[in-house]
Amino acid sequence: MAAPDSKRPTYATEAIPSDVKTGMFLGNPTLDSLVSCVIAMNAEMWSMRRRMKVMEAVMAKKGVTTDLIEKYVPSAAEKVAWEQDRDRFVSLTLGALADQGFRDFSTDFPKR
Amino acid sequence: MHRRELLGLAAGSALVAHTLQGDIAQAQEYFSTISVPGAAAGKAGPVTGSKGPLHRGTDGRLLRMGSLDLESQQDFTLGFRQMHARQIRVAANNAFQRLLEAEGIDPATPMSVEQVRELVAKDPAINFGVKCWLSNQQITWKTLRDYYHQNADYYLAEMEAADKSGPGALVLSPAMTIPDYARHEIHIQPGGYVGDPFAGHIYHYGTNSFYISQYGHNEQDEIHRSMAGQMPIPADGKVKRILDMGCGVGQLTVALKERFPDAEVWGIDVGGPMVRYSHMRAARMGIGANFAQQLAEDTGYPDNHFDIVTSYIMHHEMPADVTRQVIAEAQRVTRPGGVYYPIDFKSGGTRTNPRQMYSRWWDHRWNNEVWSLEYHSMSLTDEVAQRGFTQVQNATAALPGFGVRHFVRTA
Q1: Whose CA is closest to B96, among B122, B114, B131?
Q2: Across the interface, which of A5, A15, A23 has its CB nearest the CB of B192?
Q3: Is A11 in Cβ contact with B124 (below 8 Å)?
Q4: 3-state class of B34 per DSSP?
Q5: A42 contact residues in B (CB cutoff 8 A)
Q6: Domain that holds residue A28
Q7: What fold, for B220-409?
Q8: Where would you tag: which of A86, B231, B301, B388 has the fewest CB atoms within 10 A of its CB?
Q9: pLDDT in tens, B258-313
Q10: Would you kindly state where each structural domain of chain B is located, as residue ranges?
């Protein structure tokens, strides 16, 4: 286990590591990895949402209320920019759903 | 009031009540004496010129985590645990049920762990619940560990300062040989109890979510305080000394000291980082519990020394032969007429219904509860009864669903 970056005494000793990362639970290790990624991403997403709640609460105390945020109307330019970003986001994160693989890994180039 | 005067007071009820109100000024005064490179001397609040965290105040007796993001990540993993218990685990159990039906197996049929392992191999979908749970647990540990390692010098300095403070004592044994059985990463916590300098911090904040589905919140040590409240006392009413074996981060130890403020209370644990954290936390709360890095099977205390000896969820994390040594040690250090009250799971035996055995298997193998199957293979109650203790009949469990083991040391 990597020691933290400090010269102070730690009173720690060598542990015997678990092998949880080698476990294959779903019949295919890729599926296991994807599950881990999905849950981790959701942890980050919630973290961001919670920070936004804090920001809105702090801003509300300064007069920038949630109501102002809810009722905000983006300008025409903002709308265009936001939609472009939305489309970029959706394409990047979910675009692969449109890929429907049918060639087995071991097949050669198709006839041209 | 100067910090050292404050912490030098006995843990009277007024001080405890004051502390439990979450006195931010007290916490900041405590932190202000820590010397960290780059920080202005004697200045409270955020540490400048270093990677030091913010002081975010307290939530009752819980010091708030050092960053909003870390707190939110832990909030997520707690929420996911709840959802997992209510939905994902139910779906996985339904898949298990379908498999049993397809195989023509009665759900009540006692099965061995080998039989269950063979059974669940037929449907990987059953393991989906386990995979989700483990992934969430890994996030719990990783986010905590990364945070404390990123701020290592700050938190190590904080512990160094606390090591020398009171009101309780801290005894560390860096030369002690840590037995292999205690070096495993139980609960897949990186470094386990002995291998990470912040094992105590990581364990404390990480396990707050452990109770949520079955017992509710524990951020204020609700569960440990409840157990301490139900701790039986010797028939003669004399409680001068209490020993909490395998004390972890000292939540039960501290709760016992709060209940018995005039008693000398000791918490021992094999992990140096664990007892350091326990001591620091107790000192921060102004509670005079003592902590020592020590093996439960070789405590070093005199014969007949304690009026109450207890432990909480320790025995299922050690081999059966060590459990027997610990019981023998408990018998030695408990005075005649004293109470021995080890709190742990019911001993389940080597065969149980398929679903329960499946849970037990994956908890043992993949949650790295390395010794739990050995624990279930013996009867802790019988082992204690064979070693100089008399079992009290009609006793109650300190925690619902746990084994009832109230014993009195015979003369």
Answers
A1: B122
A2: A15
A3: no
A4: coil
A5: 76, 80
A6: 24-62
A7: Rossmann fold (3.40.50)
A8: A86
A9: 999 999 999 999 999 999 999 999 999 999 999 999 999 999 999 999 999 999 99
A10: 220-409
